[in-house]
Design goal:
Number of helices: 7
Order of helices and strands: HHHHHHH
Structural class: mainly alpha
Strand content: under 5%
Shape: globular
Helix content: over 70%
Largest sheet: none
Distance between the termini: 38 Å
Number of strands: 0
Length: 192
């Protein structure tokens, strides 16, 4: 009975963490997209990656990209960056934002380890900083508030995940509403 409860609690926290991290990167991307600085291919690539990750987290789709393909794609973009900078965008900031969105798409689709999740959160922060530099609209503050809410949710659930990974002694919730309780904690901390 205790093993079943542990699995349910761990699965609920993991699902909450995955959705929080997805929300974090989605808000960073949407803030960047709202600046109207991104071109259509970049928007389509990143949105598709977000949608695919959402389907994976929801359990609708199973997607595993081999590490060799990820490495080749990253090397391909390193070769493409100078072309983007000198011939396509002709702007350092635009080429760099394209690179961040490409990196976000790759990390969104391939994140499986704690280090990958940390990198994904860092990319979301870089997207938000890019949006702060490029956006002159009041809507940025709404994205910032959502980003803070998702960041709190991701950090609290990541800490609980880390506790599960370190110890076998866990205090279990009496019912299955762990995700709802984590959302309430994140919302309350976001208001403070």
């Amino acid at each position: 009975m205790v093993g079943v409860q542990r699995n349910r609690t761990t699965a609920a926290v993991e699902r909450f963490f995955q959705f929080s991290l997805l929300g974090l990167i989605a808000v960073g991307f949407l803030a960047l997209a709202a600046s109207r600085y991104l071109d259509r291919p970049t928007l389509a690539l990143t949105f598709t990656a977000l949608l695919l990750r959402g389907l994976v987290v929801a359990g609708v789709l199973r997607l595993e990209i081999p590490a060799k393909i990820v490495s080749l794609a990253a090397l391909g973009y390193v070769a493409f960056y100078p072309l983007d900078f000198y011939f396509i965008s002709r702007d350092f900031l635009a080429a760099t934002v394209h690179g961040v969105c490409f990196l976000a798409a790759i990390k969104i689709l391939t994140a499986t380890s704690n280090r990958d999740y940390l990198y994904t959160g860092a990319i979301a922060f870089i997207e938000l900083i890019g949006a702060a530099l490029l956006s002159f609209q009041a809507s940025f503050f709404a994205f910032l508030a959502l980003y803070i809410l998702f960041a709190i949710a991701a950090f609290t659930s990541a800490e609980i995940r880390r506790g599960f990974q370190r110890s076998d002694q866990i205090v279990y919730a009496t019912d299955g509403r762990v995700g709802l309780r984590l959302a309430a904690v994140a919302g309350a901390a976001g208001r403070a």
